[in-house]
Structures are given as structure tokens and as C-alpha cells.
């Protein structure tokens, strides 16, 4: 993180986002399907968001083992979203929509995303996708999240964001964020993304374009969390499309 980014990390969320090297973020997403946003939230914000888990802010709770998703649990927020989460969703979408459109064009996907998140949500609502998808995930010792994709309906924004709210080595051990990528006629590639408390990772939800010798093709991605060996790990997930 540059000196400017370090200074902005202690300012407003808007300032933190405005000072990011978004050209570098796009380069990393194009090359790897994921990109880091270091210190997107400060430690106080992480503690405040983590505390939401025990508050009345959610529309549903999922125990992963009951559905074969892994171990641990998560809760989906209900509308209206907390102010900080709403701002994250709105501002991050605006930064990522141009890249999402470029990716779709490269993959010959005839879907264009509007500049504002509210316009995209109107499209979701028209298709019956009205339930909010941002979520808080909580893992204890022995918990993990199987590889998956967060789709929820016809309309899917191709990027999402996860923010680690706990400190590796202090609050928990293990629990690495993992991405797999399946290219045609090749074995799967695994990418383990190192995160510290307050760091965010932007990553592809389902597909990303990769340029090959015969042109551009789609690569399928899945994400998950490795086994937590000790302690407790909390994560905020920011998904931009809503659910049926």
C-alpha cells in the first residue's frame, strides 16, 4: 500500500476508495481473477461490523453443515442495510461496473451494467430478485466453506468483495481464503489470498475472460475458506446482485 493509501486508510471510506490504484486492481483482476484492497476498513470498523452478528439486522441464518456447504454459519442482511454496508455496496459497484462491462464484452456476453448500483438493483427487482445478499460469515475451530459460486438468480454481477474482520494469528489460525480456476483442458489452478484484518479481496463470481492463442475464452472460478484450526474468523461478504 502506498503512503497515500496508508494515510487515506484512516479517513473516510470514500477517501480510501478514491485513493486506490484502480488501474492496478483491474490489472490484478485481469491476470488472476482477484485483487487485494488493503485496509479497506479500519480496526474499529471491523469490530463494529463483527458485533452486528448478534444484533437484529438479518433476514435469515444458514448453518452450513445442514446443507452440505461446509461448517460454520452465516446470516443475510435484511433491508435497509446498515449505512456502512450500503456505502460499500454503492461505491464499490461504481468502481467495478466498467471492468464488469469490459469482461462481458470480451466473453461475448450481451449484458451491460448501468453506472449506478440502484439502477442494477431495479433490474434485479424486475426479475423477482428482491432479497438482499450481503452477509456476515462466522467460523469457529474446525469450520470451513466448500468451494462455491454466489449466483442467486438470472441477474448476476460478475464481481464480489469479501472483507476479513478478524486478525490472522491473533483471533484465529488457518481459514485461508481460496480461489480455484478451471481452464478448458487444463487442471484446476488454486490461489490462496493472504488477508489481514480490514483487508478486502475483489474476485470473480463465476467466470472471467482469459486471452489464449486462439482468442479469449471463459474461465470458471469458485471460492471457499480453508479449515479454521483455532479461534474465530468473521467475514463481511458484499454481493451486488440480489436473490430470488
UniProtKB/TrEMBL annotation:
Spell out the InterPro entries in the cross-references: DUF2086 (IPR018655), Oxoglu/Fe-dep_dioxygenase_dom (IPR005123)
- Residues of the Fe2OG dioxygenase domain: 130-243
- Sorted UniProt keywords: Iron, Metal-binding, Oxidoreductase
Protein family per UniProt? Belongs to the iron/ascorbate-dependent oxidoreductase family.
Under what name is this protein listed?
2OG-Fe(II) oxygenase
Gene source species: Dokdonella ginsengisoli
